[in-house]
Design a protein that fits this description.
The complex is a heterodimer. Chain A is an alpha/beta fold. In chain A, 30% of the residues lie in helices and 23% in strands. The model of chain A is unreliable at 1-5 (pLDDT under 50). In chain B, the strands form 2 sheets. Chain B has an 8-stranded mixed β-sheet with strand order 6-7-8-3-9-10-12-11, sandwiched between helices. In chain B, strands 2-1-4-5 form a 4-stranded antiparallel β-sheet.
């Protein structure tokens, strides 16, 4: 992004392209994504299924399954080094140590045959070079920190003995165990009930701000991002469509897709309108994307040029950019 | 609840208990999961009752018990004046014509080996609601059009449809036999937000067109506020609060309802960050071993000693506003610690 880039930028992603080479053709899951995260900042990455938000995160961590996926081009500069160029063993020292990650399904990301104690001490011994005893003591502290009662006993438990919320707490403990500079939360609370979701998000936000870790929240939930993110990137069909501060994105959206998303969710705090303004049509098939702007067939602002020509992110105000020719005419009122 | 005489559906003291069995060959019952434990409500013709709660609260089981997919342990389900839980076989099948159901998972709920047309038309065959093959084909085509699909799509198979289109098929099947009441069990939670809005609009259009009553089961409180006339909140098998939607959302009286509402973020950062926040401690207790007294007292920020001893009755605290909490009258006198 051109805007808001400051010298304390922790992560700098430029022109990242991750493609999947399948029998049906090439899926450009991430197609020229650029963004940055500053030290200690919370960035939200929102979009619907298949928009490429998770693949973006996996690409940062170099966890894209290859084959069929491959990072085709781009740079991921983290703490001054391009992660794409690192050797596998150097990358392993970044993963878990400098960048922590929490996934949606705590049951599948925890190893079912290892005690949670073993799973928390492993990164401590590996990255922090702690002795076994030190690691166990630290693991108990970490469990206590994430609010699991009776931590010494819980260390001996297996993942199935914990509830969904507790498992996600354990995941947070593991992810934060080595004091990473960046924590990536990929739909980390989607599978949880709302009251548990609120607990986990509060916990994540508090802990990361205490230790000054930057947070990348990836979700389809517009509310979660509104509550916690400083800046927001909106993705659709492999590209960032709009980027700006949370206040700008929600208060003054400048991309038709963002307007569509905001208008299609009913609000908890409002006596609702008679009908929701849905976005017409379907999410496009990534194998046969429409020409020009991928959102153009569903867009109420589309003009002729959108059918074959798509802009880069255009400045649309202070710390705000939109990938839309018509961004000056786009507003929430005109969307209804 | 107000058992109005004009009500279409009336549920009285509904209980669904599932036995928990241990042992390999000689199984014995070691306890009961009280999935639904004394639930009562009514639904009027053309009305939508929203039923919200977290997983394990019994909201899905309530819906299934109404259409007798899960047989109630005790209590009455009376629909159009007929006691459903005493019916069996043929009589029940006839009554089911008047009751529809739409399930959460649009991928799992449709038979992958049947064409879309036959999925939608099957209720017509079961209830013999057509005169000729041509009439059947016309009716199926009409149904597809009613839910916003093309007539010609009837010859396709479920895998050829997107998630949103599949949910449209589920809705078409549910309305095929011209029911007066439909149980909608999380009908939009598996869909992307832009598609959710399409299905919600469709459901509202159909409600108006056919004067349908809905039981709308969901965990998404924003969606429930949008679509419901009245809302009931469930926790561990019990209804803890019922009121008209605006009353419930603007003046919640039960501490659990308050917590639920404050846990849902509003997509507006300036507004949301000013809101009063109430984060509940702990997990939902196991329904196998629910707390004594008020089931919520273990997580309740305003619980007093009596709460662990007496089961609070659902009582009308304000007109049409029912709460199961002994401290409901104190609603003004406590604030939520931020």
């Amino acid at each position: 992004m051109i805007n808001g880039k400051t010298s304390n930028s922790l992560l700098e992603v430029s022109d990242l392209r991750t493609h999947f080479f399948t029998q049906g053709g090439v899926i450009k899951a991430v197609d020229g994504v650029s963004f940055h995260i500053n030290e200690g900042e919370t960035l939200g990455l929102v979009g619907e299924s298949g928009c490429g938000k998770s693949v973006s995160a996996l690409s940062l961590m170099r966890l894209v399954p290859n084959p069929p996926g491959r990072i085709v081009s781009g740079q991921v500069v983290f703490e001054g080094r391009d992660l794409i160029q690192l050797s596998d063993s150097e990358m392993r020292k970044v993963r878990g140590a400098r960048i922590g990650m929490i996934f949606q399904e705590p049951m599948t990301s925890l190893n079912p045959v290892l005690t949670i104690g073993r799973q928390i001490t492993e990164p401590l011994e590996l990255h922090m070079e702690m002795t076994k005893n030190m690691a166990v003591t630290r693991a108990a502290e970490l469990l206590d920190m994430v609010g699991i009662p009776d931590p010494d006993e819980r260390l001996k438990d297996y993942p199935h003995q914990l509830s969904g919320g507790q498992r996600q707490r354990v995941m947070i403990a593991i992810a934060l165990s080595c004091n990473p500079r960046l924590l990536i939360a990929d739909e980390a609370t989607t599978a949880l009930d709302v009251t548990i979701q609120a607990q986990i998000l509060e916990l994540m936000k508090t802990l990361t701000s205490e230790i000054g870790t930057a947070l990348l929240i990836i979700t389809h939930n517009l509310g979660v991002v509104a509550r916690y993110a400083d800046r927001v990137n909106v993705m659709y069909a492999g590209k960032i469509r709009e980027s700006g501060t949370a206040e700008e994105i929600y208060g003054n959206p400048k991309h038709p897709y963002t307007v569509g998303l905001l208008n299609s969710v009913p609000r908890l705090d409002a006596v609702s309108v008679e009908r929701l303004q849905s976005i017409e049509g379907e999410i496009p098939d990534m194998l046969s994307l429409p020409s020009g702007c991928a959102f153009q067939p569903r867009c109420r602002w589309a003009v002729e040029r959108c059918e074959n020509d798509e802009p880069e992110l255009i400045d649309a105000g202070p710390d705000h950019s939109s990938r839309c020719w018509e961004h000056e005419n786009v507003s929430r009122e005109r969307g209804t | 609840m107000t058992a109005g005489n004009g009500s279409l559906l009336s549920v009285k003291d509904l209980k669904v208990h599932f036995p928990v069995k241990r042992g390999f060959i000689f199984q014995k019952t070691v306890g009961f999961i009280k999935a639904v434990d004394g639930v009562s409500f009514t639904i009027n013709p053309g009305e939508t009752l929203g039923l919200v709660g977290e997983s394990g609260s019994g909201k899905t089981t309530t819906g299934r018990a109404i259409i007798q997919l899960a047989r109630p342990t005790s209590g009455d389900v009376s629909f159009e004046g007929v006691e459903l839980n005493h019916l069996g076989g043929k009589e029940l099948r006839q009554m089911r014509r008047r009751l529809g159901m739409v399930f959460q998972d649009p991928y799992g709920a449709l038979n992958p080996r049947m064409t879309a047309g036959n999925i939608v038309g099957e209720p017509l065959i079961v209830h013999k609601m057509y005169d000729s093959r041509q009439d059947y084909r016309n009716k199926v085509g009409d149904l597809l059009e009613t839910v916003g699909l093309n007539r010609g799509m009837g010859s396709r198979y479920p895998h050829e449809f997107s998630g949103g289109q599949r949910q449209r098929l589920g809705v078409a099947r549910a309305i095929a036999a011209r029911p007066s009441f439909i149980v909608l069990d999380e009908p939009v939670s598996a869909l992307d937000v832009s598609i959710q809005a399409q299905i919600i609009n469709l459901l509202q259009d159909l409600q108006e067109q056919f004067n349908l009553a809905y039981l709308f089961i969901a965990h998404d409180l924003s969606v429930v506020r949008h679509i419901s006339d009245r809302v009931a909140v469930m926790y561990l098998g019990k209804i803890v609060e019922v009121a008209n939607r605006n009353e419930l959302y603007d003046n919640p009286l039960h501490p659990y309802t308050k917590a639920l509402l404050s846990a849902v973020p509003i997509p507006d950062p300036t507004l949301d960050r000013k809101r009063e926040r109430m984060v509940l401690e702990g997990d939902i207790p196991s329904p196998l071993d629910p707390p004594t007294g008020c089931v919520f007292h273990t997580r309740c920020p305003i619980a007093v000693e009596d709460c662990s001893m007496y089961i609070p009755e659902l009582r009308e605290v304000k007109p049409e506003h029912w709460v199961a909490c002994i401290r409901a009258e104190d609603y003004g006198s406590y604030t939520i610690a931020a």
